[in-house]
Design goal:
- The chain is mainly α.
- α15 runs antiparallel to α16.
- About 75% of the residues lie in helices and about 0% in strands.
Length: about 290
C-alpha cells in the first residue's frame, strides 16, 4: 500500500504512518525503487538484503516510524549482522521519542531470547509515547508470554484508557483482573461488555464464566464454562477452571479428573500452561 500510494494510486490505503512514508517516497524515485527492492527481498525471505535496502532508504530520508519498524524487523531476522542488538540499540537511541524504534529493538532481543532486555526496550517504548497503543500491546504480549499477570494488568488498564470500547481489551482486562485475584465485581461487567460484541468467542465466554465462578454464581459459571469447554475441549486452562467449578458444586472427583486432564493435555501437546502447579494441587487434593 505504501508503494502504490507513493506512485499516486488514490485508493491505496496505508496506515497513517505508512501514508507519511509514502509522501516522503513519492518525491524520491531512487529511494522508492530501493524501498520496493527491500519489500521484494523481505517477501523472498532475504532478510539481510532487505535490511540493507531499508537501511539505505533510512540513511537518505531519515527515521520515519513506519520505515524504522520495517528495518528493525529485518535486523532481528538478518543472519549476517555481527551485533544486531548493538546496531538496533544505536538506532533506537537515535530516535528516543519514537516507540516503533524501541518495539523494533524488543523484537531483536526476542529473537536472541533475552527477556530482560526485551522488557526494558518495551518499557522505553511506553515511556517514549504513553498514548501509543502499539507499545502497550507489545508489552502486554510480552507479559502474557512470561505469565506476569501484574504487568499484563497494568498494560490492559492503559489500553482500556486508550480504547475503552474494544471488546478484546475489555475481555483481557477482565481476565487478568481475575487471574491477579482482583475484584470480580470489576471484572464481570468488562467481560459482559466483551461478550456483547463477541458472543461466540470461547475466550470471552470463558472469562464471563470465570467471573461468575469467582463471585460464587455457580449456575451462570457452569453454563458459560461448559459452553466454552465444548468449543475448546483440550484447553488446559479451561479444563482447570471447569474442574474448580465442579469442586465448588461438590463433584470433587470429577473436578480432580478435569485438573488431571489439564496437565495431561498440556504435556501431550507441548502447550504453555503457567497454572500447572495449581492443576496438580487440585488433582491431588480436590
Amino acid at each position: 500500500a505504501v508503494i502504490w500510494r507513493a506512485l499516486g494510486v488514490e485508493d491505496a490505503t496505508p496506515s497513517p504512518s505508512g501514508q507519511a512514508l509514502a509522501e516522503e517516497l513519492a518525491g524520491n524515485p531512487e529511494q522508492l525503487a530501493r524501498y520496493t527492492l527491500a519489500q521484494a527481498c523481505e517477501e523472498a525471505r532475504y532478510y539481510y538484503e532487505a535490511y540493507r535496502a531499508y537501511r539505505e532508504v533510512y540513511d537518505d530520508i531519515g527515521g520515519q516510524p513506519y520505515l524504522l519498524s520495517q528495518m528493525m524487523g529485518m535486523l532481528a531476522l538478518a543472519d549476517r549482522v555481527d551485533d544486531p542488538a548493538g546496531e538496533g540499540q544505536a538506532l533506537a537511541e537515535a530516535h528516543p521519542d519514537t516507540p516503533e524504534a524501541w518495539i523494533g529493538l524488543s523484537r531483536i532481543h526476542e529473537q536472541a531470547q533475552d527477556n530482560e532486555a526485551r522488557r526494558q526496550a518495551l518499557r522505553r517504548a511506553t515511556e517514549a509515547e504513553p498514548d501509543s497503543a502499539a507499545a502497550w500491546r507489545a508489552l502486554a504480549q510480552y507479559a502474557n508470554e512470561i505469565s506476569d499477570y501484574t504487568l499484563a494488568l497494568e498494560c490492559y488498564r492503559e489500553l482500556k484508557r486508550l480504547d475503552p470500547d474494544s471488546p478484546i481489551v475489555n475481555n483481557n482486562l477482565a481476565y487478568f483482573l481475575l487471574a491477579s485475584g482482583e475484584d470480580p465485581n470489576e471484572a464481570l461487567p468488562l467481560a459482559q461488555a466483551a461478550h456483547a460484541e463477541l458472543q461466540d468467542n470461547p475466550h470471552v465466554i470463558h472469562t464471563v464464566g470465570l467471573a461468575h465462578l469467582r463471585l460464587g454464581e455457580l449456575d451462570e459459571a457452569q453454563r458459560n464454562l461448559d459452553f466454552a469447554l465444548q468449543m475448546r475441549p483440550g484447553d488446559p486452562t479451561l479444563l482447570l477452571d471447569f474442574g474448580q467449578l465442579l469442586v465448588e458444586l461438590g463433584r470433587t472427583e470429577e473436578g480432580r479428573r478435569h485438573a488431571q486432564w489439564a496437565v495431561q493435555f498440556a504435556d501431550r501437546f507441548g502447550l504453555d500452561f503457567p497454572r500447572r502447579d495449581e492443576a496438580l494441587a487440585l488433582a491431588e487434593t480436590g
